[in-house]
Each structure stands twice: as structure tokens, then as C-alpha cells.
Design brief:
The chain has 230 residues and is mainly alpha-helical. The chain has two domains: 72 residues, no CATH class; 146 residues. The chain is 62% helix and 0% strand. Helix 4 packs antiparallel against helix 5 and helix 10 packs parallel to helix 12. The radius of gyration is 18 Å and the shape is globular.
Length: 230
């Protein structure tokens, strides 16, 4: 299938009510308002398609870009591909794909230093995705500790979207990397509540220590995900 054919398939699936929800979360036109459940039906049919993912992302349509992330062949994504995607990005698609690529760690460290809040936020989200899918033996634990301390020192001075993703990184580190759980909880306590303007939504910023402890109580600390895409 071509990107043009996919767009033709997506358009009648759009719903104004869902589009309004997306707009409240910062999504902009062009957007049809296709529910994720409908996008996943298309993903199930296509599975993975490197070139089609690139073509869909280049349409600039939000629904197509989200689908691109779902069907992307992460292992084939180049640094050039990912850097081009992140410049156009908003939302979770790019961090998912970057984390599944061979370049996730390197690019995440580059992106968190970006002057663009959107790209910096994508960098922290990529780090969160990475620790959720990679075995601890594949992670640079010393570097993750340093990043945790960076979050502690700077989180309250960041822009809203960066602050939100930094808080998510603290939570991810505490829940997916067992050896750093106690350190993450202690750091989160030192950070305290994180406030973010969530716009016209009912979303709330999780209090990291409580969130990690809930996962701890369920006995799910350190359980990795097969994929960070959802």
C-alpha cells in the first residue's frame, strides 16, 4: 500500500469528538481524529514496513504519523531518519521508534541537550522507553544515575513538556531498573511534586515516589516490556 492509499483509508475513520480530545492534548491540523484502536487494526495488517512508515510520517498528518511509528521497522531506522522525525514531532511516536533502534541511547543524550523544548522532551521520553525494554545488563547504569541527579537538580526549571518527561524518566528508572529503584524513590522524594500545565485535559502528573511504590507493591519492579509502542 502507499501513503496516499492509507490516508484515504484513515479519513473516514476520523471522529470529531476524538479530534477534539487530541487537540486538547496539543495535536494540530492536519488531523482526522482516528482512534488508536483503529490505527492498530491497520498496524496488524501491515505489521512492519520501513519505507511506508517514512512516507506516512512525511505526510504531516497526525494520524498517519502515529501509524508510522507503529509500523516502523525500528532496526532499519537511521540516525538521519530519526533526526528528521524528531524535528517534526509531537507526542510519543519518535521516542518509541528511537528506543527500538540501534541509535536510541546516543540520540537521547543528544536530544536532552537541545534548545528546543519539544526535542528535549523527546530525548527524556526516549530514555524512559529505553529502560523499559532493554535488559539492565545492556544499560549504562552509572550514566543513568547521573541523569537521575540531573533531573533532580534541574526539573523545576524546565518547560512544562520537558518537566513532564523528566518526571516520567524518574518513574521509568524506578520501575524498570531494579537496582536503581531505591535511588529513584529517594531522588523523587527530594524533587517533590511536579507541576505541569496540562491544558484543557483531565490528565494529572503522577507523584513519582507513590507511583514507583505502587508498582513495588504489585511485585512488578524490573519487569521489562516487549515493546514500548502502544
Amino acid at each position: 500500500m502507499t501513503a496516499k492509499e492509507i490516508l484515504s483509508e484513515l479519513k473516514p475513520l476520523g471522529r470529531d469528538s476524538y479530534k477534539k480530545v487530541l487537540f486538547n492534548h496539543g495535536v494540530k491540523e492536519p488531523c482526522f481524529g482516528v482512534k488508536i484502536s483503529d490505527l492498530k487494526l491497520i498496524q496488524k495488517r501491515i505489521k512492519r514496513d520501513y519505507q511506508l512508515a517514512l512516507d506516512l510520517y512525511d505526510t504531516g498528518n497526525y494520524d498517519a504519523m502515529y501509524l508510522a511509528g507503529l509500523i516502523a521497522d525500528d532496526a532499519r531506522m537511521t540516525k538521519k531518519d530519526l533526526k528528521r522525525w524528531v524535528r517534526k514531532s509531537y507526542g510519543v511516536t519518535v521516542p518509541w521508534v528511537a528506543a527500538g533502534s540501534p541509535h536510541g541511547w546516543e540520540l537521547a543524550l543528544e536530544w536532552i541537550d537541545s534548545k528546543s523544548d519539544r526535542i528535549a522532551a523527546a530525548g527524556w521520553a526516549t530514555l524512559s522507553s529505553l529502560v523499559s525494554i532493554r535488559e539492565d545488563a545492556q544499560l549504562d547504569l552509572a550514566a543513568l544515575k547521573r541523569l537521575l541527579q540531573r533531573a533532580r537538580k534541574t526539573i523545576h526549571q524546565q518547560a512544562d513538556e520537558v518537566r513532564y518527561q523528566m518526571n516520567g524518566f524518574v518513574i521509568a528508572l524506578g520501575t524498570y531498573v531494579k537496582s536503581l529503584t531505591d535511588t529513584a524513590i529517594q531522588t523523587a522524594e527530594e524533587i517533590g511534586p511536579v507541576t505541569v500545565d496540562m491544558g484543557n485535559t483531565a490528565c494529572q502528573v503522577p507523584f513519582a515516589p507513590d507511583y514507583i511504590r505502587k508498582v513495588q507493591k504489585r511485585g512488578a519492579i524490573g519487569k521489562k516490556r516487549k515493546s514500548c509502542k502502544c
